[in-house]
Amino acid sequence: MDKFYNETYLKLETAIQELEIETDCPIKRIEAVIHHIIQSLADLKDFVLKNDFKNMEEEIHFFKY
Q1: Which residues contact residue 31 at a Cβ distance below 8 angstroms, ignoring those fewer than 6 apart?
Q2: What distance lies between CA 63 and its chain's CA centroid?
Q3: Contacts of 8 by beta carbon, 8 Å cutoff, 6+ apart
Q4: Residue 3 burial (CB < 10 Å; 0-12/13-18/19+)?
Q5: What is residue 53's DSSP assignment?
């Protein structure tokens, strides 16, 4: 679970950094960043729904941190 989260987080960070370099208009950049965040959260939700947690402690740790 942590591996998937870390990979998703790194992809999101990279996409945001690329947008900061490429996009001149701040409003369009923010809209694009929001789109990337929503997509990453949707991917994370799908992953969590498809893959159960090993135990309750892992689930609590995942959502807490």
Answers
A1: none
A2: 13
A3: 40, 43, 44
A4: exposed
A5: -
> Cβ neighbours of residue 11 under 8 Å, at least 6 residues apart?
40
Q: What's the token pair of residue 21?
A: 């370099």
Residues 6+ apart with CB under 8 A from 22: none
Angle at 47 between CA 46 and CA 48, to 5 degrees: 95
pLDDT tens-digit readout, 8-59: 999 999 999 988 887 778 888 899 999 999 999 999 889 888 888 888 998 8
